[in-house]
Automatic annotation (TrEMBL):
Obligatory cofactor(s): Mg(2+)
SUPFAM superfamilies named among the record's database cross-references: Phosphoenolpyruvate/pyruvate domain
GO molecular function, one term: lyase activity
One BP term from GO: oxaloacetate metabolic process
Pfam families: HpcH_HpaI
Official protein name in the record: CoA ester lyase
Binding site for substrate: R91, E156
InterPro entries xref list: Aldolase/citrate-lyase_domain (IPR005000), Citrate_lyase_beta/mcl1/mcl2 (IPR011206), Pyrv/PenolPyrv_kinase-like_dom (IPR015813), Pyrv_kinase-like_dom_sf (IPR040442)
Positions of Mg(2+) binding: E156, D183
The keyword Magnesium belongs to this UniProt entry's keyword annotation: yes
Domain HpcH/HpaI aldolase/citrate lyase residues, every copy: 31-194
Keywords, in A-Z order: Lyase, Magnesium, Metal-binding
High-level lineage: Bacteria, Bacillati, Actinomycetota, Actinomycetes, Propionibacteriales
Amino acid sequence: MRSSKDFFRPLAVGAPQPVTEIPARPSRAIHFFDPSNEKMAAKIPQMVGTVDVLLGNLEDAVKADNKEAARAGLVRIAKDTDFGPTQLWTRINALDSPWVLDDLTTLVTEIGDKLDVIMVPKVQGAEDIHYIDRILAQLEARAGLDRPILVHAILETARGVANVEEICGASPRMQGLSLGPADLAADRRMKTTRVGGGHPGYLVRQDPDAETPDAPRATFQQDLWHYTIARMVDACAMHGIYPYYGPFGDIADVTACEDQFRNAFLLGCVGTWSLHPKQIEIANRVFAPSVEDIRHAREVVAAMGDGTGAVMLNGKMEDDASLKQCLVMVELAEQLSR
Ligand code: GLV
Ligand code: MG
């Protein structure tokens, strides 16, 4: 049977082809921790196996005075911990910061064999990925590593969004992209001070003729991030890499967090960031197809036989295209159950 890869990976002659087959490992929640925070760091070994990705953060949210301590802490944790099925990622400092060169040199040299993915913040264009790609190649060769470290870019500047397609295709190391709504809001001069999520002022109102004496015109809040997530998803699909939502800063508002994560999942994202253990549980639940979705998808796959033509199921038309939609669900369910 055809797989969804047939349409995620462009087959047309001359179309961009990913050189490396990116391993499809679950990464529903990328849980951020500050390796310079001893209390947080001490909990990391117990989190192995409870989350798909643990990410040692070196960039924003780590105080300038703690940058060296965070880097050293990450090296220590990586050396002392068996990560089992959990991936280890890091977010390095920005390319125009005084810390990034030491981040890369130290991490690849000391723990390159343990690091799955390096997340690069504030990526502006392909040139930033080329720079990282070159340095990683040199450091990996020197360290004698036998598997390439993958690269994940944060989409958090207006220029980065404008260049999103070239960023995705800039290197076979590209694993995926995350939305960085806080930096992006600032860079675009948006008027929200929240870290991700919606805003009560961003809404549409029903027409005046919908109003009755008993029912004022209803308002509907819109998703501030819809446009950017949709662009990011398209660019990632075109290049066969993975799109992620990013941070949701209002830790207490688990309902709005779940809504934002679900919107991203429905639009095509494979995962999100977690800033607090309670967001891991939300992400693991949201970034997986529901039992009902899987049941329906399997029913369509079975009914479609050789995958061509059209069938009627429960009063609805299914065909080659809806089969592809269902294969996305079935494959994700299988990948997550391994
Ligand atoms: C994340 O880095 C953000 O800026 O939202
Ligand atoms: Mg940021």
